Amino acid sequence: MIDATSSVRSVAQSHPGATRLFALLGIDYCCRAERSLAAAAVAANVDRDELIDLLSRRAPEIPPVTDKDWFAAPLTEIADVIVKNYHRRARRFLVDLLDLVDRLLSAHAAARPELWTLRATLEELGRDLIPHMAREEQYLFPYIKMLEHPVAGDQPVIIPLSGSVEYPLQGIRHDHSHDLEYLARIRSLGSALTSGDQCGRLARFIALLADFDRDLTRHIKLENDVLFPRAVELERAIARRKAAT
Ligand SMILES: [Fe+2]
Ligand SMILES: [Fe+2]
Q1: 65: enclosing H helix or E strand
Q2: Which ligand is nearest to the CA of 215?
Q3: pLDDT tens-digit profile of 161-197?
Q4: In 3D, which of 230, 228, 194, 231 has the Cα closest to residue 209?
Q5: Which residues sit with Cβ closer than 5 angstroms to ligand 2, an ion?
């Protein structure tokens, strides 16, 4: 039974897959393993309940995002949907896929050697994507929300180093290009798995890969095509208004 008071060390020793999850989320399970999960979650800027759900494999189902006219939606709503839905789903997909690929490797490594490359590619994508999403949640999205709802009085204001949202967006878009390259590689490796006999677990893995591919592609498209251009436009409009007064 895992709860917020469990130590990182005890969970790392007792739960298969915990150390990989800690590594993906940037939680130190070596030198600072005596910390509670609650303290480790705060230090790694990870939601405590989500961490416990991921470790105990009892996360509630997170529904996919329903289509709507995102060009008309407030930027705050878009950022919240991305964080609460796409980001949580991406972490859940990665944990489930890595768990499944390990189980498949233990049974089918000789017959399906491409599973090794798939596992390595999923791990590489996770090492890029999870810190990327954390940067969006900690810095970029709060700034975009602040453009829409300027903070008042003595509340802290988050300003990109360059003074414009366009500078951090260059790095974010660069990350997205890498993510899409990883997805293309995963798609190609996944399609090779569809030939020949498939056990139930392999069929589930192939279906989950396709769901992850679709979800992450939509997530990146919503950021690249809607949220970011609209944030840039809003920031420019605010600058124009300020210059005119
Ligand atoms: Fe994102
Ligand atoms: Fe992103």
Answers
A1: none
A2: 1
A3: 667 888 888 889 999 999 999 999 999 998 888 887 7
A4: 194
A5: 223
- 157 CB-contact burial (10 Å; exposed 0-12 / middle 13-18 / buried 19+): exposed
Cα 30 to averaged position of ligand 1 atoms, centre (Å): 29
CA distance linking residue 235 with residue 105, whole number of Å: 49
Coil, strand or helix: which one is 198? Answer: coil
Say how many Å lie between the CA of residue 133 and the centre of ligand 2: 6
- Give distance in angstroms: CA of 1 to centre of ligand 2: 33
pLDDT tens-digit readout, 74-112: 999 999 999 999 999 999 999 999 999 999 998 887 788
Cα 211 to Cα 239: distance, rounded to the nearest angstrom: 41
From ligand 1's centre to the CA of 132, what distance in Å?
7
CB 69 within 8 A of CB 75: no
CA of 57 from ligand 2 middle (Å) equals 25
Q: Which residues fall within 8 angstroms of residue 23, CB to CB, at 6 or more apart?
A: 29
Q: Nearest to residue 50, comparing CAs of 91, 7, 15?
A: 91
Residue 98 C-alpha to ligand 2 middle, in angstroms?
21
Give me ligand 2 centre to Cα 223, in Å.
6
Measured CA to CA, the distance from residue 124 to residue 101 in angstroms comes to 14
Residue with tokens 């590489």: 124
**How many A from CA of 117 to the centre of ligand 1?**
25
- The token duo for 189 is 């490796």
